[in-house]
């Protein structure tokens, strides 16, 4: 006898405005419990110190996580000059101090060097795996961590304000794998000083914006008075930035069975196959064929 699955077969997105001090894993667990969802996941982990957009995928939406989180993200963050921390944020221990406070002009002059494809060494306190273990777990256990530099892309790096000599606030549009704490650390070193992040907020990820988000408190209140489905965005909400390919009903049936179909599209790349306005699958177009990668059971 098949084992009965627990929870409701809910599919869609909850764009949580994650509160400070909560891990992304705990946030997903809270949302899944509130909605009694059978399956939930997320991509693009936010540090406990960070707030802002954490899109949580439910049910069939989990198949689109990588497509969403491979897109652009926008962060707003504040750093404090003159003090380095071992975690590169306010949660860490002080490792160094500097009396240097860069001017607004010096900061703006330095920013272009951190725009475009750049190489950065992730913070030691990060979720990157080293020999199968998370780097942050190794650090907390007192072990030495040595992470290799990686290439990331920063599309925009802007100074928003410098309210006093000790602090500055920035906005960054960046691609997958960019660590804001590393940006802050490296910018300070370029300016001949030290710094760490004191506030960090994600204000956009993929197609999602702050207007799409909901706080945990509001979600809790709504779940007590309304059906859970009223708080969940459709699966296709997250696919707006992926080129759509409309197919016939017969072609959709073939794609659902994992079979390739022919297409007149010349270019290659990821597409969202749709039929009657509904997503059927994420697929790769190559050599005149549409090859399904993740099929939605909606």
SSE blueprint and pairings:
Blueprint: E1 12-18, H1 24-35, E2 40-42, E3 51-58, H2 65-69, E4 73-81, E5 83-85, E6 94-97, H3 104-110, E7 116-120, E8 129-130, E9 133-134, H4 135-140, E10 150-164, E11 167-174, H5 180-190, E12 195-205, E13 208-209, E14 214-215, H6 216-225, E15 244-246, H7 249-256, E16 261-262, E17 269-275, E18 278-286, E19 289-295
Parallel strand pairs: 1-14, 3-12, 15-17
Antiparallel strand pairs: 1-3, 2-3, 4-11, 4-12, 5-6, 7-10, 8-9, 10-11, 12-13, 16-19, 17-18, 18-19
Helix pairs in contact: 1-6
Describe this structure in words.
The protein is of the alpha+beta class. It folds into three domains: 12-70 and 207-237, 2-Layer Sandwich (Pseudouridine synthase), CATH 3.30.2350.10; 73-205, Pseudouridine synthase (2-Layer Sandwich); 242-295, Archaeosine Trna-guanine Transglycosylase, Chain: A, domain 4. Helices cover 20% and strands 37% of the residues. It contains seven helices and 19 strands. The protein has helices spanning 24-35, 65-69, 104-110, 135-140, 180-190, 216-225, 249-256, and strands at 12-18, 40-42, 51-58, 73-81, 83-85, 94-97, 116-120, 129-130, 133-134, 150-164, 167-174, 195-205, 208-209, 214-215, 244-246, 261-262, 269-275, 278-286, 289-295. The strands form four sheets. Strands 1, 2, 3, 4, 7, 10, 11, 12, 13 and 14 form a ten-stranded mixed sheet that branches. A five-stranded mixed sheet has the order 15-17-18-19-16, covered by helices on one side. Strand 8 and strand 9 form a beta hairpin. Helix 1 (24-35) packs parallel to helix 6 (216-225). The longest helix is centred in the first third of the chain and has 12 residues, at 24-35. The chain is globular and about 70 Å long. The two termini are 25 Å apart. The mean pLDDT is 90.
